[in-house]
Design brief:
Blueprint lengths: L53 E3 L4 E3 L1 H5 L8 E3 H112 L2 H6 L1 H12 L20 H12 L19 E3 L5 E4 L19 E3 L8 E7 L5 E8 L19 E7 L2 E6 L2 E4 L8 E7 L4 E6 L4 E7 L6 E7 L3 E5 L1
Antiparallel strand pairs: 1-2, 1-3, 4-5, 5-16, 6-15, 7-12, 7-16, 8-9, 8-15, 9-10, 10-11, 12-13, 13-14
Helix pairs in contact: 2-4
Length: 424
């Protein structure tokens, strides 16, 4: 049966207004069937040879009346092909109107919006350049003023040291002259006086000798040393650390020495990540360089002089140590001699849960932080004698320590929770 509202084509061979013989007796004459719809310019159905005047919605194709009533499209919704074409034309017209409106909107956007955006971008770029220039001029002026201030302090300290040395030189020159004169006097007394005269001059000899006893031997004095603290400047310190650790060209290509890795640690394939594993499942071969108790590892390269820096991602770990150590750091056993920060051979910044501190030779200094750093930079100035820990994201110095390093240093790592990774 056809769906509700479907117009079925007339049966093949039926004349409009005719009645069926079987239903002629006792029934009213039915409404005449509609005329066949117009076809596709004479195209005919290949199955029934009739004109294609109808459209089957199910098959989405033109069909003849016989296909719709008795053929393959029986029971499908069919409409007159002419009506279908008219509906399609209306839809195409609507689509053309939409395309026209869309084109008009694009044209207006290109004519009105884009030029304004372009001008806005030009203005914003000009403003950004001006900001960069003005801020760098300001920073440059501040740096120049700081440079002048520090150079003046260096000059003043140099003059003070020089003047102290001159004063000491004059003092000790005078003392030498007094001692030489006294010695000459005493030699003269011994040489030229007889026993009677020597005894008679005893009081004079005692007084002159007693005066010489007030001349003490030279002692070490800080006044004669140049005070390196005169160049300490929070601004210079901050700018220097930021410039080294925020610039990729200032960072070292640090690698973990696999011979030192504790059995509690696993090194990733890219040699950048150290992960903690409390079960000691990693089958590392034992060797003298390997830590066998503490979860430590050292870098491959030793630094002898100059400035060196590297960064470590630490946001995945709540227990780690980062810093430097001498190569003479003990590797075996559970004692403090092999524990980073608990001996004279290592300097480390550490985290345990929410607690941060700097440790060296079992002396621990708490580091108060507002938030946990995602990365920690380690900067070592071997010539200047300083190790510094820095947060490159916040551009904040976490801690700095001065030390006269007496041997080459190695990057040092320890992790007891999750993992840490070198940033290369």
């Amino acid at each position: 049966m056809a769906q509700e509202g479907t117009r079925l084509p007339p049966p093949v061979g039926a004349e409009p207004g005719s009645r069926s013989q079987a239903g002629a007796a006792g029934r009213a004459e039915p409404e005449p069937e509609p005329e066949p719809a117009a076809g596709l310019g004479g195209e005919s159905c290949p199955e029934h040879g009739l004109e294609l005047g109808w459209f089957c919605a199910a098959h989405r194709r033109p069909v003849c009346a016989q296909c719709a009533r008795l053929g393959g499209c029986r029971g499908h919704r069919v409409t007159a092909l002419e009506a279908k074409a008219a509906d399609l034309r209306n839809k195409i017209v609507d689509q053309c109107e939409k395309l026209q409106l869309q084109s008009a909107a694009i044209t207006k956007y290109m004519a009105e919006v884009l030029p304004g955006k372009n001008q806005s971008a030009l203005n914003a770029a000009s403003w950004a350049r001006e900001v960069v220039i003005q801020r760098l001029i300001f920073v440059r002026n501040v740096c120049e003023n700081e440079e002048q201030r520090l150079l003046e302090k260096v000059h003043t300290e140099e003059e003070r040291t020089h003047q102290s040395i001159l004063t000491q030189r004059a003092h000790w020159t005078e003392s030498l002259q007094k001692l030489a004169a006294l010695r000459t006097y005493l030699v003269d007394m011994i040489t030229n006086l007889d026993d009677h005269g020597l005894v008679h001059a005893e009081q004079e000899i005692f007084e002159r000798t007693e005066a010489a006893e007030g001349i003490l031997e030279p002692q070490e004095s800080e006044k004669l040393n140049f005070n390196q603290k005169c160049v300490q400047s929070p601004l210079l310190h901050q700018l220097w650390a930021s410039a080294v650790l925020s610039c990729a060209t200032g960072l070292e290509e640090v690698h973990v020495d696999e011979k030192t890795i504790s059995p509690l640690l696993a090194l990733s394939e890219d040699k950048k990540t150290l992960a903690f594993s409390p079960k000691k499942t990693k089958p590392y071969p034992d060797c003298p360089e390997r830590f066998d108790h503490w979860p430590n590892a050292l870098g491959t390269q030793a630094f002898h002089k100059g400035t060196h820096a590297w960064r470590i991602r630490v946001d995945k770990s709540c227990a780690y140590k980062l810093g430097i150590s001498y190569g003479s750091l003990q590797r075996k056993g559970p004692g403090n001699a092999a524990r980073l920060g608990y001996n004279p051979f290592s300097w480390v910044f550490s985290r345990y849960d929410k607690e941060f501190r700097f440790s060296h030779n079992s002396r621990h200094q708490a580091v108060e932080l507002v938030k946990c750093p995602a990365q920690v930079g380690v900067l070592v100035d071997l010539d200047g004698g300083e190790v510094l820990f820095y947060d490159p994201t916040a551009c904040v110095i976490l801690h700095s320590h001065r030390e006269a390093f007496t041997a080459p240093i190695y990057p040092a790592f320890a992790v007891a929770d999750q993992s840490i990774s070198l940033v290369q």
